[in-house]
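Slides due. Your pick:
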Amino acid sequence: MSSEKKHTLGADGRYSYWSSSMVSVDVPGASGSSFGKDAQKGRWKIIDNGTRAFLEVVYDSGQTRTFALTKDATNWYMNGEKAFAVDPQ
């Protein structure tokens, strides 16, 4: 199994999401595989309720999703998954 997710937050408020996953199973007498891809665009903003921070995304479809942002001593997390901030260039 392998998977990759990428959330891109533009300085101008633009948001894009891309994911790809692959699962392959090979056991005696049978084998199979599955592939999946997803891509979405929208707008983002940070919401702070005084004690917690959230990333709110409004997709071009009109759907809204909120991601909890947390951190420990060394890492950031988005909905509990380790998040990495990188320069897209």
Q: What stands out?
A: The chain has no helices and seven strands.
